[in-house]
Each structure stands twice: as structure tokens, then as C-alpha cells.
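Supplementary Note 3. Input sequence used for the single-chain structure prediction.
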Amino acid sequence: MIRRKPLDKKIIVYSEEKRPCELSTWLSGADELLELAIFQGIPIYRISEPATSNLHLIQKASPYEERIRKTSVNSCQLPPLIRTILAFCFGVCPPLSGQIHPVIIDNCTKCHGGVKQKGGLDLRTVESAIEGGETETSLIPGDVEKSPLAQVIQVDSDPHMPPKKQLAPAEIEAIENWITHLKITPPVELILPDPAEDPTSVINSLVSEKWQEEKITPAQLSNDATFVRRIHLDLLGRIPKTEEAQSFLKDPNPHKRNALIDRLTETKQHAEHLTQTFNVIFLDRAETRKRNRGERKAWLNYLRWTFETNRPWDQVGRDLLIARPTQEIENGASWFLYDQRDDHKEMATRTSRTLLGKQVQCAQCHDHPVAPEIEQRHYWGLVAFFNRSLNIKTPEGPRVAERAHGGYDQFANLEGKTDQSQLILYSNKIISEPDGKRIKDSPGFYRVAPPEQWFKKLKKNEKLKKDLPALPVPKFSRREEFAKAITSDNPDFSSAIVNRIWALLFGRGLVHPVDLMDSSHPTSHPELLAWLTRDFANSGHNLRRLIRVLAKSQAYQLDSRPAPSASNPPLDSFFARSLDKPLSAEALARSVRITLGYDAPNDMDFRNRFAKIFPALFAENFSPSVQQTMSLTNGKFFNQLIADSPLLDKLKEIEDPQTLVRETFQNILSREPDNLEKERSLSFVKAKDHTSIEQFCWALITGAEFRLNH
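The predicted structure, written as C-alpha cells, is reproduced below.
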């Protein structure tokens, strides 16, 4: 059984004449100011200093105060050393719960969040709400009557919040209930299973422990027919062909599921599926970015090679960011940055979202509205790593060059305060340039120098020539330093891809949504994500191994129907059943062609039509659109595809109605019909009747069971 072990360390002793909750808290006898377990493998920081009699002096005395103040600790934030934290011996508060979080975000953080903090009050975290603003705390856990946050929202209160709105009674009650049951918990250290344990066993153990804690009965294991369809869709991006499904169902091997997972992940079809998937993840669909898909040929070749050879994921990250290929097949990696067309802000935000799982664009003009650890300086620091980049063309193809000088941005917040950008990471580590600020350029700053024109001041209307004989390479490369920093010993990098692959297979991430891995979106299973992150890094960033590990777990192989004994379906975040996942445009297009009996599942014309209307990957919420409905109902191209299909020709030759129904279900849904389905199908479809058979096929293909992976 995995447990969270409280830190057993001396903290602070208070004098008895002052209540710790008061602003004027005085301390005595303390020899350790702070000790905190920081999530995801970052080591514990311990600051030992003599006790200081004044709280404010303690804050200033701590050399780590700024680092700790902004560091994300799993779902919690450690704020400045504040009176209430001292009162509870540095207890770490839970995050805003799902019940209260929408109320706070929708009604309070516009004036008390990252954009502005009226009265010095920040309501983005529990801790900052407890700390209060210029006058007093806004929140006292367990005491509604003494919590100003609960009092100012009452009808006819003065002052009244929100200023121009009255919260609904249900919202007020939710806040009051939340405050009543809010408790400060002591800091805890994540105790992880041994690194040598079998990964699938660890997943099973930690997920099962969560079920036990929440008194959840998981669904039963899926049957073989459900599993073979699910695993083909997840690993190959298509349903199984009839003969593939039948072969698996007839196989008596008790370990056939694991064997199938291993075999499918070795195929070129699996590599192609990941290629199409990560093409969308990294660069979106070409149609949505108004790009020519043909321009991505080298990029797609690079991705295909990456997944066929199981290239280590940290090396993939460096390929994309450094963009200096050392062999021909790596040429396409440059397209990740080249496709941004010298837009350094887009390079920064896209890199943060895809490789680190964090949305940073909200911090362009101010600190992040709901995630305090993401600051405005982080946004501009990220941009600074890319703002010397420049698209060029070489005899080897498109490249992203990098200057050796310039790229110093001044940025201002909404209050007009300006600052200078630094090469700063989310961890607050600052990378220094060896020669300091470099305004003028010269050939001596390069390992491979650009042409002389680069160093001349351009005349009016004169443009820099971007057709170069070779790629310029500076001696100090901001992109190279950034790539090394985020791919080496950086849990954020590993946890982002672990979470994304989990979401790809399970329908949602351990952190949901997958590109919002911040303090306002806590992980559902902290120990599990931390262990998998460490295991992935220790495995040499082996993506294929990670996929196999997750697919072999018990949670992945559960049935999608809740356990019969469950009075209510459990929350999706408990993974107590298989979640229904809408098929991507690519998977749906391939599956339709396979089920209809066409030889070539990868028809680009059909895929491109679907790509314009069907859901994006990792949608936070899925809701079919009117456009999708109309396309499947009245779309001439889609209906003609069914009418002309080899499957329809085959079914029209069947004379027995029961055989006709059974064959149709097997070909389209990969299963036998139940008795009710058989009865209703026989009342509609007629043997040898083209129209009824075509309509029958259409009904099954456009139904939710076919369009979802379950």
C-alpha cells in the first residue's frame, strides 16, 4: 500500500503571548525556517537560519523566498512566509476545490488575480486568500462567520462583492460549505514505489488504491471483442479488419493481449498513426493553419522515422528546438520552428504547450490569471530563447538560423512597469550569456559564420538575403541552451509526454486538460504521475515502452460500462471505467474505409474532408457539431462511399436475413448483435434489398458506437 508520509521535522516554536494568526506574530526558539517536499523529483529545500523576531525580516532574510513563493508543489502553492502558514507549522493548503474554483475564477480573479490585485488581495490560491490583502485575511478555514470572503458576498453586505453582481444562493452556499470543511494539512512527501518495480504493476496498484480510498468499485475487464477494437484504434488509428479480430478472438493464449500490444507497437502502421497524431499535436492540421500539406513532407518523414526507430524523446525535443540536423533524415525536424515564419512568440507558446504541457500566452501582459507560478517574466524569458531565430534557405533545405547578438526585449505590465527580459525557465533558473549583453554582431561570435551581408547595416528598402550556402551557428546558442535545460533532469518535460500519452490511451490525462499542467489543474494521481515521470526518464525516454506499459494496465483494459453495483458512474478522473473517446478525423476516415471493404484505408481526399469538420485531438469537452451531423447525414461524398462499397456488394449476396444482420454487425462493430438488436434489425433490413442494406450500414457507421472508441 502506498502512503503519503508527513515530514517529521522541527519547524517553529511560537511565544505564548501572541496568537500565531495575528499580523504581529513574533517567533522564538526556531532554528529551521522552512522545509518542503517539492513535487516531481525536485529536491527538498531546507533553509537553516537563526530565528528572527519579525515576520517581515524573516521573509527578507530567506535567500530562497522568491523561488519558493513561486514554485508549484503538486496541487499546492507555497506563498511568502505568511502568518497563517506559520500558525499551522507550514501546513500546505489544498487547492481551490472543483466545487468552489469556478465561482472564484468567474467572479473574483478578474480583480483579485494575476491581472490585477485590488487591495493587494490575490484569490488564485487558498494560501493567498488566507494571507489576505492590505488589511486582513479574507479566509479563515473552518470559520464562515470570520471569513470576509464569505461575508462580502451576502445580500446587502457592505462592502459587497462582486461589486456589480449578486452571487446566486447556490454559489454562496457552495462557498460557505467549502470554507466550513476546509482544513490545513501538513506538508507531505510523496512516497513512490521502488524504481525497480514493474511499471504496469505500479499503475495497477496506485489506481486501485485511489479506488479503495474513494470506495469505488471499478468496471469489469472488457471482453476480447471490445479490447481488440480498442487497441487497434489506439495503436494503429483504425478498427481491426474482420480477419484480425477473428484471429485474436480464436487465440487460446492467456497472454494474447500483451502479445498483441507488443506486436502492434512494432508495426509501421503504429509509427504512421503516431506520425499523424504528433503532426497535429505539434503543428495542428495544415488546414487550420492555412498551410499547404505538401510543405510538410520532410517533417512527416522525420516524425515517421522517429517513431519507427523509437528515437529517445529527449533527443526528439533537442532535434526540434536546436534545429541543426546532423543527418539527412533529421532535416524535417527544423520545420517545427520554420513553420512559425519568424514569429518568436508563437515559437515560445507552441514549445511550452507541446513539450512542457503549459499554456504561457496568458502571461504576456501580466502574471497568469489563475496559475501564480507562471509569471510575465517567464513568458518573455521563453520568447527570448527564440528571438534570435531567423528562417533561411540552404542547399539542404529550409533551416532556422540563429544570430549571435540582440534579442533584448523590454516588456511592461498593465500598470506600465517595465522590465528587461531574461533567459529564465519555469523553475526560475536563469541562463547567463558568457559575454554579457551583446548588441553588435561579428564573425568571431560564430562557429559557422554567416555571409558578410549579415554584419552590414542595411540600406533603406534593402532586405537581408536569406538564401545562404550554409546554416550559421553561433558559439553561444540560446536555443541550444534552452533545449539542453528543458530535456535534461527536468520533470516538466518528461511528465508532459507521460500525461499526453496517458490521455491518448485513456481519454483524459492524469492532469486534464493535457496542456494545462499548472497549479490550478492538479493531477488526479500525484504519486502515479511522479513515478511514471521518473520511470520514463530512467528508461532513456523510451516512448514505445511507455505506450506498452500503459496499454497493459488493468485500468486501460476495463469495460466502458460502470460496475453494476455502482449507484452513480464514478468521476472520469478515477479511471474506474474505460472512457468513451471520439475518433479523430484520421482514425474515423481509416475505419470507415476499412469497414466498407476498401483496399486502401489511407485515402487522403477522404481524410482531408473529415479533417475540416471532426474533433481536434485532446478536446477538453466533446460535443458533436451540426456540421458533423449534416456531413454524415446528407453528405454526398460520404453516402456515395457507402453505396459503392465492396461491403455492400458482399452483403447484397447474402440470402438469409439473420446471417445478413450478423455479418453487418461483425464488419462494422466487430461484435455480434444482442437479441434486441437482432430483433429490431430484422424488422428493418431485407435480404437482397439494396436500399435497406445501405441504410442499415449507414445507421451502424454513423452511430455513437462506431464513432467512439470505448
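The first strand starts at residue 4 and ends at 6. Residues 95 and 570 are 21 Å apart (CA to CA).
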